[in-house]
Amino acid sequence: MHKFKINTEFITLGQFLKATDHIGSGGEAKFFLMENEVFINGVKRTERGKKIFHGDQVTVDQKTYYIVYDQKNNT
To answer: pLDDT tens digits, residue range 41-62?
Structure first.
């Protein structure tokens, strides 16, 4: 399992996919989610605006990411 740090209350699924290099731009999120299985806490999700919070688990391309809040980088 990989850790993914956020320094805000949440991140959207589209932002997550871009930050983890699964897509190159936010506009690709809709198409990526139509063609690939992405799970948040074990539930398949297709909404690019779905909010991901600290403690959530995201699985994409057979990799699981555990979302953690990083207070050190909070601005």
So the answer is: 999 999 999 999 999 999 999 9
Q: Which fold does the domain 2-73 belong to in CATH? A: 3.10.290
pLDDT grade for 26, boundaries at 50, 70 and 90 = confident
Quick check: 64 and 3 in contact, CB under 8 A?
Answer: no
Token pair 């555990």 is found at 66
Residue ranges per structural domain of the chain: 2-73
The count of C-alpha atoms lying within 13 angstroms of the C-alpha of 30, restricted to the half-sphere facing its C-beta, is 1
CA 28 to chain centre: 14
Mapping DSSP to helix (H, G, I), strand (E, B) and coil, where does residue 6 land? strand
- DSSP E strands: which ranges in 1-75? 2-6, 10-12, 38-40, 43-44, 51-53, 57-60, 63-69
